[in-house]
Amino acid sequence: MKSIKPDKQDARTREIRMILNARYPDVKTQLDYKSPFQLLVATILSAQCTDRQVNATTPKLFEKLNTPEAFVDVPNETLEALIRSTGFYKNKSRHIKNCAAALVERFGGQVPASLDDLVTLPGVGRKTANVVLGAVFGIPGIVVDTHVARISRRLDLTRHTDPVKIEFDLMAVIPETEWNDFSLRLIYFGRLFCKARKPECPDCFLNHLCYSEDKRT
DNA sequence: CTCCCGATAT
DNA sequence: ATATCAGGAG
User: Fold this and answer.
1) How many CA atoms lie within 13 A of A20 on its CB side?
2) Is A7 a residue whose pLDDT tops 60?
3) What is the percent of chain A with per-residue pLDDT over 70, rounded to a whole number?
4) Which of A44, A92, A161, A217 is least surrounded, with the fewest CB atoms within 10 Å of its CB?
């Protein structure tokens, strides 16, 4: 377990962390799930889709299909119909079926507990893998979704647009023990205040630390 | 880089 | 009408 060197975090970064920690002390994924496999599927479905929409879709889905084996066997059109409202349904259906097959063939039907294994699964990139690692296994990871990417740039925690570069920039300035929760706090913050389209800058509790071009008065 | 793609807010 | 939503594959 490597610890972050104090001199790598400037005072502003630390203040941003502290304020977010105080504002959102208890965070967890907003996706509903009852097993690691369900969270994996829900997270794949969440690509370019709100968690609310995913949560409206998954109960009926998992009522019919609740194991990797069941997803392997189901016809593509049936699965597409079940997940249609989450968008990108043809790709997601194929990804989930191939992912389920890979789980059965290579991981004994169990969701693997490492980033390297998870990203070998079809439809699973670093963002999805880090969501599952954090929520299910408690393994630290920065989750770079659209909110985290946008806010990290607005707060000048990174100047990159490539999600992987943003992930490593954040890992360098955030203590490893907070990687998961910090990601979730940025996501909460992004939904309520630092929105993509019309950010609530006048009411924002980080306004005094933000020099973004997107800032509104 | 492009494509996938429905639901919602503005 | 258009941008955006817990992205990933080819």
Assistant:
1) 28
2) no
3) 96
4) A217
Q: What is the pLDDT of residue A1?
A: 47
> Does residue A143 approach strand C to less than 7 Å at its CB?
yes
| Superfamily holding A36-137 | Hypothetical protein; domain 2 (1.10.340.30)
**In chain A, where are the structural domains located?**
6-27+141-209, 36-137
Separation CA A3–CA A71 (nearest Å): 41
- SS3 percent helix, strand, coil of chain A, rounded to 5, is 60, 0, 40
Distance CA A103, CA A67 (A): 10
Supply the pLDDT for residue A181: 97
Q: Which amino acid is at A1?
A: M
The answer to whether domain A6-27+141-209 has CATH 3.30.565.10 is no
A35 touches strand B (CB under 7 A): no
Instruction: Compute the distance between CA of residue A115 and CA of residue A131 in angstroms, rounded to an integer.
Output: 10
Token look-up 């304020």 returns A19
Interval A19-46 mean pLDDT: 96
Mean of per-residue pLDDT scores for chain A = 94
User: Does the structure show a pLDDT above 90 at A6?
Assistant: no
